Amino acid sequence: MVRKELEQYLEFLEISGIQDIYFSKKASAEKVITAKPSAFVSNTKGQKLEALQNAYKDCQKCELWRGRNKFVYGNGNPDAKLMLIGEGPGAEENATGQVFVGRAGQLLTKMLHAIHLRRDEVYITNIVKCRPPNNRDPLPQERAACMPYLLEQLAIIQPELLLLMGKVAANTILESRDTLTKMRQHTHLFQGIKTYVTYHPSALLRNEHWKRPAWEDLQMLQRDYEALT
Ligand code: SF4
User: Fold this and answer.
1) Helices within the chain (DSSP H only)
2) Res 126: pLDDT
3) Is the whole-model pTM more than 0.90?
4) Which of 14, 43, 73, 107 could connect to 47 by a Cys-Cys bridge, CB 3.0–4.6 Å?
């Protein structure tokens, strides 16, 4: 398993254009691995993401693979300035391999439209890429197992703003146990990226009263997004 993960990591580095790896041996740095010059070096962000999606689609790093019909890696603009992160795939996503395609997805599309954004302008993904059974929250060990994939997506896309949708996404990314209400009260920094927290669209379908505060979150995000462009 360790060997497989190392191979995947090396493949990611190669795809990302990193050809040499050094490690510190006492005081001196020694080059230990020289990756072959790769045809991937000049690849676009979209091609890098596609290569990683193919590399991980049969992942078995946590138990969620057992319920997987389709691996749900992420969709959208690889050059996006805004990346949205949800919790995990639901039934429709597991059936299609696309993120946010059910009722929650339709609502998300409308929410983005309300702040003058199209889905193909942003990149959308989840904390875990395989569906948790019965839509339960992904367990801490499942989130930890899948986190390297999300970090790779962030490293490739390099968004300038993040929107974390729901408590699971926010608690995981911000390494916080705070309530969603508390986390929404201000912006955060994750790896130097300005990060907003709001409700998950599924929660908004369950509770109409949260739509107003969610709209306020989106308006603040919109101001920052428009300042970028
Ligand atoms: S949820 Fe992530 S870590 Fe777990 S099996 Fe799926 S891709 Fe692998």
Assistant:
1) 2-15, 45-56, 91-96, 103-114, 140-157, 167-174, 180-184, 201-206, 211-228
2) 98
3) no
4) 43
What atom in ligand 1 is closest to the CA of residue 142?
A: 4
Closest ligand 1 atom, residue 145 Cα: 3
Ligand 1 atom 2: the closest Cα is on which residue? 146
Q: Which domains does the chain have, with CATH numbers?
A: 1-42 (no CATH), 61-228 (3.40.470.10)
Which residues of the chain carry a pLDDT beneath 50? Answer: 1-2, 15-40
Which of 52, 61, 73 best tests ligand 1's pocket when mutated (most atoms within 8 Å of CB)? 61
Give residue 130 CA to ligand 1 midpoint distance, Å: 6
Residue 162: partners with Cβ closer than 8 Å, 6 or more residues away: 82, 83, 84, 85, 173, 190, 193, 194, 195, 196
pLDDT at 43: 86
d(CA 140, CA 193): 23
The atom of ligand 1 lying closest to the CA of 62 is 4
- pLDDT of 156 reads 98
For residue 167, the model assigns a pLDDT of 97
pLDDT of residue 18: 45
Per-residue pLDDT, 146: 98
Query: Which residues form the pocket of ligand 1, taking CB atoms under 6 Å from any ligand atom?
Result: 56, 59-62, 64-65, 128-130, 142, 145-146
pLDDT at 17: 46
